[in-house]
Amino acid sequence: MGLDMYLTKRIWYGGEYKKDDEQTLSFVGPFATEHNIDSRNVEEIVVKGAYWRKANAIHGWFDMECGANSPDSNCQDLFVSGEQLIRLYELCKRTLTAYNDDDYNKCEELLPPCEGFSFGTYNIDEWYKQDLEHTIEQLKPIIENKDIDKYDFYYKASW
To answer: What is the pTM of this model?
Structure first.
């Protein structure tokens, strides 16, 4: 148990609104059979965008920035705009620079750790730095590939 965090990319497919000659998805195999999946019923495809484990400062940012700011945000999908993802990406880069300059007070000011049940360490330490680097690494291709202009993103955490 602990803080698991997911950013998903949602791709609109259209399902029943597509003409038969536009249906390009196919589902075969035991999973498709067991769940009776027909591409005409698939309206949206959900793909992993990013994943974190116990990156509580990043969770705190999503919680505050995306409007949940509530203890009831556990397992709720929060819409994340492209502008918000860019802000998080830039914030992590600035915070990493502060960390590398040993300016831990600036880190605390920019991206403070967030406390919660089994959220990991609350220190500005090597784990904190790794969370920043991991976030930058995961968001960079999303931003550079212009995915933020093409898809909807949602954040969800569970603990």
So the answer is: 0.88
Q: What is the token pair recorded at 158?
A: 């569970």
Q: What tokens were used for 152?
A: 């909807």
Strand, helix or coil at 113? coil
Q: Which among 78, 93, 74 is positioned nearest to 140, based on CA atoms?
A: 93
d(CA 74, CA 82): 22
| Residue with the larger pLDDT of the pair 153 and 158 | 153
Report, in angstroms and rounded to the nearest whole number, the Rg of the chain calculated over CA atoms: 18
Among residues 99, 28, 18, 15, the alpha carbon closest in space to that of 57 is found at 99
Nearest alpha-carbon partner for 107 in 121, 93, 119, 117 = 93
Give the helix ranges, DSSP H, for the chain: 30-34, 56-65, 82-100, 104-110, 126-144, 147-150
Average pLDDT, the chain: 89
Asked if residue 64 lies in contact with residue 82, where contact means CB atoms within 8 angstroms, the answer is no
16-27 pLDDT, tens digit each: 888 888 888 888
- As given in the structure block, the two tokens for residue 142 are 């999303």
Q: Which two tokens stand for residue 119?
A: 């959220």
- Give tens-digit pLDDT for 73-122: 667 899 999 999 999 999 999 999 999 999 999 999 999 998 766 676 77
